[in-house]
Write a structure and sequence with these properties.
Blueprint (H helix, E strand, L loop, with lengths): L14 E3 L4 E6 L2 E4 L7 E2 L3 H6 E3 L16 E5 L5 E10 L2 E6 L5 E4 L4 E2 L4 H17 L15 H10 L12
Antiparallel strand pairs: 1-2, 1-5, 2-3, 3-4, 6-7, 6-10, 7-8, 8-9
Length: about 170
């Protein structure tokens, strides 16, 4: 949320209350003034909780291990990328859960990445489609095989079922 400098928040702060500029810590359903747990819990009303602004999830750039609880993409045993949550480590093994199936399991460090944006997903799909089309012209290095003429390659694409889509204009 804009305007909140979470760098100034006391350690453990999970929420911010804008009208008094105070950070709070929520633990086991109870709110405390952040950094002042010794003061005791804050008795809250529903309206108080509704006005609290939760701390945004930390970002992860794909280097090292992600923060515990962050959503990630991970490679399934079948090789496809699924969305789940990084749970943590146990006995040196990386543990994640799958949102779609609820299954929890171990991962290798190279089997997880930050969640891709829709633009990144579209770019990956485009590159996969291009690669699939190029496989129709089997280019073999250091031979005279492959590298059809443009016309022959277009005929091959047509025979494989590739067609230009008529997309609606934005006018």
């Amino acid at each position: 949320m804009s305007g909140i400098d979470w760098n100034k928040a006391p350690e453990g702060a999970t929420h911010y209350l804008a009208y008094n500029g105070c950070f709070f810590e929520k633990e086991n359903g109870t709110f405390y003034v952040a950094g002042k747990k010794a003061w005791g819990k804050v008795y809250t009303t529903h309206s108080f909780e509704a006005e609290l602004i939760p701390r945004p999830s930390p970002a992860w750039n794909g280097e090292g291990l992600p923060p515990v609880g962050i959503d990630i993409e991970f490679k399934s045993s079948g090789g496809e990328w699924l969305v789940g949550q990084y749970i943590g480590q146990f006995n040196g093994k990386i543990i994640a859960g799958c949102h779609a199936t609820g299954v929890v399991g171990y991962l290798q460090s190279g089997e997880m990445q930050p969640i891709r944006t829709p633009e990144q997903i579209a770019a990956d799909e485009r590159e996969a489609a291009v690669a699939a089309m190029l496989e129709l012209d089997p280019y073999l290095p250091n031979t005279s095989l492959g590298m059809m003429s443009r016309a022959d390659f277009c005929r091959t694409l047509y025979e494989a079922g590739y067609r230009k889509l008529d997309l609606p204009s934005d006018t």
